[in-house]
Write a structure and sequence with these properties.
alpha/beta; two-stranded antiparallel sheet; 6 helices; 11 strands; globular; binds adenosine monophosphate
Length: 251
Amino acid sequence: MKIMVAVKRVIDYAVKIRVKSDKTGVETTNVKMSMNPFCEIALEEALRIKESGFASEVIVVSMGPAQSVDTLRTGLAMGADRAIHVDAPATLYPLSVAKILKVLVDIEKPGLLILGKQAIDDDCNQTGQMVAGLLKWPQGTFASKVVLDKEKQVATVDREVDGGLETLCLDLPAVITTDLRLNQPRYATLPNIMKAKSKPIKKVTPQELNVEINSDLEIVHVTEPPKRKAGVILSSVDELVDKLKNEAHVI
Ligand code: AMP
């Protein structure tokens, strides 16, 4: 069985985001970019499944401009076998990503498609659900545990939901999206970084895949959140209760 993993190049989680002066988006020039943290978890899970003998190959896919290849190289250095770069604009919306993934799945026929539960740049949390819909595959989103049964060809997925944990049993092939507690992704070792340089990266365009990438969405403007006001130190519980009642109006 093959496993396909979608990995997105995003602004590194530790970078302080700056909004562009014309409010059209956030500044990405000279900003450190990395693999989306939830995608690292998705890839780690795929690698563990391969190491357990359940899968034969892990393919990483990224869509975006030429620099997305750096993200794919990171994925190959972590242990993926090969990569597909879909040469596309940086601002791709989830439905376009889902349509492209569907075509790639139709070509590669993986038994599992694993994505991050969300990309930390757009926080959409839509792509996994959309591609599962397009493929008509079962989906286990926000996975915190994945157990595969080779004989029955099913995946048992624990999902983190508001009220606790929900356990689903999915027939393969299936889509899984990963939550934070699923695993701790590995670091790429130096020898593996060197090996990754000779692993294959195939480049395709959305046109070659017959996918139109226009969107019905338009970003009107992007603004910074309001600055947090300085706090105050209160001298008594009575004063706190008074402020909560008469200023914050929360009790
Ligand atoms: P989103 O729905 O935008 O929050 O993204 C959820 C997941 O979809 C990400 O964690 C990735 O696994 C995948 N994804 C979204 N955009 C891309 C992209 N441009 N390239 C590869 N994977 C992507």
